[in-house]
Amino acid sequence: MLIKSISSANPEIGDYPFTTCSPAPAMMKYENIQIQLIDTPPVTPDYLEVWHYELVKDADGVLFILDLSNQDSTGIMESILTKLREKKIELIPEEQTVSAESPLFSRRAIIVANKSDLPQAEENFSRLKKALESRFHPLAISASRGDNLEQLKKRIFSILHIIRVYSKVPGKKVEFDSPFTLKRGSSVLDMAKAVHMDFARKLKYARIWSKTKYQGQMVNRDHILEDEDIIELHI
Questions:
Q1: CA nearest 64: which of 191, 197, 156, 157?
Q2: CB 229 within 8 A of CB 210
Q3: Which long-range contacts (CB under 8 A, 24 or more apart) does 50-59 make?
Q4: SS3 assignment for 121-180
Q5: E-assigned strands of the chain?
Q6: Tens of pLDDT along 155-200?
Q7: Are residues 20 and 42 in contact, defined by beta-carbon separation less than 8 angstroms?
Q8: What is the pTM of this model?
Q9: Neighbours of 184 (CB within 10 A)
Q10: Which of 6, 73, 132, 224 is 20 to 30 A from 84, alpha carbon to alpha carbon?
C-alpha cells in the first residue's frame, strides 16, 4: 500500500502477508526529481534472506517500515536490527554521517510506523518512540489515509544527502525541471564534470545564484554547492 501511495507503481495489494514476493523497483516523484525505491517482501526475525542483507548494503538509505497494528512491532524491530548487526550492517539516524572507518556497513534509515489510523496505533507508537529513545526519530504515517506522506517524501530526500543544482546557459533562462543531482558537499568542478568532462578541463570560473546568499557572484571551481543553487559555467 505504501509504495502505491507515494510512487507511480501499482503493486498487488492484499490483506495477507507476503503479497510482495520479490524485490520490485518503483519511482517516487519528489518535486522536480525522481527517486528510485525498491519494494521488498516483508522481513521478520525468522525471514531474512542473504539477498536482503546485500540489498541493504547496496542501498543509499533504508526505510524500516513497521506495522502499528502489531503490539510487538518494537520487539520485531529490535530483533531485526540485531540480525543486521550480526551481518555487520548498522542502521543509523538520517542526520548521521556514514563513517568510512566503521567496521560495519552503516546505512542511514528512517523508521516508518504505518497504519496510524488504526485502533491502539497511538499507544503502540508511543511505545516505539520510548524504545528508540535518541537513536531514531520515527514517523507515524497512514498509507491508506495519506497521513504524513509528504513529510515522508521530504525525509526520503534528506536521507540521501544529495543536492539539486541547475545549469544556466549565459543569456538564457534557467530550466528548473531538469536539475543535476549531486552528492552533498559537491563543488563547482563536480558539477562541471556532470555536465561534460570538457567543461571540467576548460572551466575558468562560474557564476552562482542561490536562494539567499548569491546573486550572480563569481566563484572558483572549489566552491561547495548547496541545494538548488544555479550555476553558470564559463570556459
A1: 156
A2: yes
A3: 51/23, 53/84, 53/87, 53/89, 55/23, 56/84, 56/89, 56/105, 56/107, 57/89, 57/105, 57/107, 59/107
A4: HHHHHHHHHHHHCCCCCCEECECCCCECHHHHHHHHHHHCCEEEEEECCCCCCCCCCCCE
A5: 24-30, 33-39, 62-67, 89-93, 105-114, 139-140, 162-167, 180-183, 205-209, 215-219, 229-234
A6: 999 999 999 999 998 888 898 988 999 999 999 999 999 999 988 9
A7: yes
A8: 0.88
A9: 14
A10: 6
Q: How many residues does the chain have?
A: 235
The per-residue pLDDT for 14 is: 53
Q: Which amino acid is at 86?
A: E
H or E segment at 6? Answer: helix 2-6
Q: What is the DSSP letter of 209?
A: E
Query: Which domains occur in the chain, in start order?
Result: 2-159 (3.40.50.300), 162-234 (3.10.20.30)
Burial of 116 (0-12, 13-18, 19+ CB in 10 A): buried
